[in-house]
Inverse folding.
């Protein structure tokens, strides 16, 4: 099984399971990831996902170059997960357990919160193959870290370590490897205490707003606020607060 998909209550666990090739993705793996993210999107019981790789060496080393391009010389119509990931309104937490290179880093960039093990490394090495990152790397990395450092990584294929990634804002936390999944689960638990529709609308408004002038972003925010005030969960949240009890979210 090249990707493991587990559901534990409201949390989905998505694990790339190809440790023998540092969890690099062949086209079959990319297609399976696309299907999994679509299922995660459509399952109302799932609130948040934790995304990682098998083992302690790699989150994902990117595309499996030998399988995808040397032996098969590319594949017409291959399905990649980035479009589905970038359209999700549910949060994804990346548990980066080692190398996150090329398409692996791009998949991490498509997540909302990134937690890295202390030994993790990050890079976009496509330029050394005569390519450019085609999964959002040229667009998302310069929006996340200082432009000069992003361009250096893109121009040279140079890798950075976890502490450098933390200083630059590429990752949000760095923890010892044995604590990696537990730290992600702590974040997931806190997210699941919040109203599901509010979390989804906040993600939608915040990410869309990044591409808008401030005035337009504020209008989008007000539209989201007005929509949420009409939901059953908003009424339940206010009532639970007044009654000093945990809310019973229904996602309505």
């Amino acid at each position: 099984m090249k990707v493991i998909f587990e559901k534990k209550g409201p949390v989905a666990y998505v694990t790339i399971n190809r440790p023998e090739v540092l969890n690099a993705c062949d086209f079959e793996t990319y297609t399976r990831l696309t299907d999994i993210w679509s299922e995660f999107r459509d399952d109302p019981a799932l609130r948040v996902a934790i995304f990682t790789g098998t083992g302690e060496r790699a989150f994902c080393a990117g595309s499996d170059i030998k399988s995808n391009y040397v032996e098969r010389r590319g594949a017409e119509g291959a399905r990649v997960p980035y479009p589905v990931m970038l359209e999700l309104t549910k949060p994804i937490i990346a548990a980066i357990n080692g190398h996150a290179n090329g398409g692996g880093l791009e998949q991490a960039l498509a997540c909302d919160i990134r937690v890295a093990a202390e030994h993790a490394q990050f890079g976009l090495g496509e330029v050394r193959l005569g390519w450019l990152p085609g999964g959002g790397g040229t667009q998302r990395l310069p929006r996340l870290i200082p432009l000069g450092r992003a361009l250096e990584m893109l121009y040279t294929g140079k890798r950075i370590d976890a502490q450098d990634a933390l200083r630059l804002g590429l990752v949000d936390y760095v923890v010892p490897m044995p604590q990696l999944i537990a730290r992600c689960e702590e974040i997931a638990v806190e997210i699941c205490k919040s109203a599901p529709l509010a979390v989804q609308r906040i993600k939608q408004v915040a990410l869309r707003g990044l591409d808008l002038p401030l005035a337009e972003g504020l209008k989008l925010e007000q539209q989201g606020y007005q929509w949420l005030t009409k939901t059953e969960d908003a009424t339940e949240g206010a009532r639970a607060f007044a009654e000093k009890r945990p809310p019973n979210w229904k996602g309505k």
In short: The chain has two domains: 3-192, 196-243. Residues 11 and 48 are 5 Å apart (CA to CA). The chain is about 45% helix and 15% strand. The chain has a mean pLDDT of 94.
